[in-house]
Amino acid sequence: LLFLWSITVSIFGIGGLLGSSGSRYLTVKFGKKKCLLCNNVLMIVAASIMGCSKISQSFEMILIGRFMCGVSAGLCVPLHHQYVGEISPRKLRGFANSTSSFFWTLGKAIGQISGQRELLGSQSLWPMLMASCGLPALVQLVTLPFFPESPPYLLMQKGDQEGCKKAIRQLWGEGQHQAEIDDIMKEKATMKNTKILSVLELVKEPAFRWQLYMIVTLTATIQLCGINAV
């Protein structure tokens, strides 16, 4: 049982690794908005599977649901940061990206509080607790269709300049936005001469070795600094 539940807990991270690894390919092929919408469907399905596990008397459903939640979370983190950053005006871009981390932490806190035995962590309500992760996904699935696709994606990947201008006007209002469009065009020209490294190529590249060591060390020590206890 200990081994089984250890796998159930850790399989979330395995799904997250797979989801984040495939995020770049999916965003280039389908766009950030479509990927987020499909990702919401995946999370709702995962929540439904876990919520029905007690009725079905199947622990395997919890295992499958946790894995699907991990894939969804792995996709969502880079997708959400990119989409929010690209649809925000330049002067609000830093603030918009910082709100992602804030709500990520707030969501974990709400989940831990809701998991107390006095609330949804009781013997009768825990399936509802596991299914609750589908509620934010449902909210985004309903509201996201009213937002346009990312303007940089429309211009850089699709070459749709008119669609890019329309999306910018919808997001930022009427006005002169030619400077932002010119910046996207400059970025597109720069990307043509830049090789995008895969994860394996990044690990093998000697020029990035010390930066990679630093990032790994910082990320690992975050887990040891007591922030989870706080």
TrEMBL record:
Cell location: Membrane
One protein family per Pfam: Sugar_tr
InterPro entries xref list: GLUT (IPR045263), MFS_dom (IPR020846), MFS_sugar_transport-like (IPR005828), MFS_trans_sf (IPR036259), Sugar_transporter_CS (IPR005829)
Primary location recorded for the protein, binned into one broad class: membrane
KW Heme (keyword) present: no
Major facilitator superfamily (MFS) profile domain location: 1-230
Transmembrane residue ranges: 6-25, 37-56
Molecular function per GO: D-glucose transmembrane transporter activity
Superkingdom, taxonomy of origin: Eukaryota
GO CC list: plasma membrane
Topology versus the membrane: Multi-pass membrane protein
SUPFAM superfamilies xrefs: MFS general substrate transporter (SSF103473)
UniProt entry keywords in alphabetical sequence: Membrane, Transmembrane, Transmembrane helix
PANTHER family in the cross-refs: MAJOR FACILITATOR SUPERFAMILY (MFS) PROFILE DOMAIN-CONTAINING PROTEIN, SOLUTE CARRIER FAMILY 2
Protein name, as recorded: GTR5 protein
Organism from which the protein derives: Urocynchramus pylzowi
UniProt gene name: Slc2a5_1
